[in-house]
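Hi P.,

Sorry for the delay on this. The queue was packed all week, but I finally got your sequence through. Input first:
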Amino acid sequence: IFSFYFFYLIVSHFFGKKMGLISVVLASFFYEHIFWSLRLDVGTYSVLFMLISLFCFIKGFETNKKLFFILAAAFAVFSLQAHAPGVFICLLYIVLFPVYTRFKFYKSKYFWIFVFSFILILAPFLIRNMISFDKIYPRFQAGWFERGGEGSSFSEALVYATTTPELIGAVSFIFFILGLFISLEIFIILDRIIKEKPSERDLGRILFFSFGLISLALGIHSLTGPGGGIFEPRYIMPYYFAVFIFAAIGIDFVSEKIKKYSKLLSIIFIIFVLLFASYYEIKKTNDLVNLKKESYQDIKQAGLWLGQNTNPTDKIITFEAPLRAIVANLYDK
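Then the structure:
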């Protein structure tokens, strides 16, 4: 809920309340986010901290208050510590600070406030990691560098991009392509950023294009890097938030064309599109729940069998946490 609240505030800041509502409706029914947000998964909190950090960053430039940049740095650190993909927000700021300062970020006091705040807040976590695990960032290193073996090929890793139509549905994907095509003009006006302050809408398109591209690139890298990885859409959740932004841009573009002839038809069109897009995601969510609801029966039976046919001194090696809990509970009894 808080993720969508800050997502709405960010989108509304750049594109207005109408775009904010369309984007939030599309994103709130995304079945991957629903599934993982209902589980004790730190990746969901990483996304929330990213959005809060980004909101504070935007408010900092809007109000010229130093506190917002300190908060932006703090939540960026929390996102990074919550889950390895949190490194995304750090890379995003490498793009945003030059854009917001027209490539004079090194002269901006807000840039240095952010950098020093980030380092000071991150330092205790790094020191603790070194003392406790002998690694600066154990999750990142264990997850992406120490699995051994070779990574996937680049063409195989493109699964993160090629599965987009299936994950968001045909309706959302069509408007995503339209919105992305409309927004490509930002590359034509990039030279103007150096000379003059870009509009909020242009800033928003640059931000969310970077938002999606960086997240997607990290997902692909996680599969092609040393040891490879596992394809999981939750690792590039910011990418899907960006996808829904551009889908909303496409929907808004068509609705404004219809509005020239009839305001009522424009409203009906938006409702119609959102209903179809949401129905697809609700159906996917329902299918996923039905698939998963019996998934622990086999693990439960295996745990009961192990509990009855092993001794407390025996060593049981398993990746499944529920299996360990079942066996341990039987031993305690």
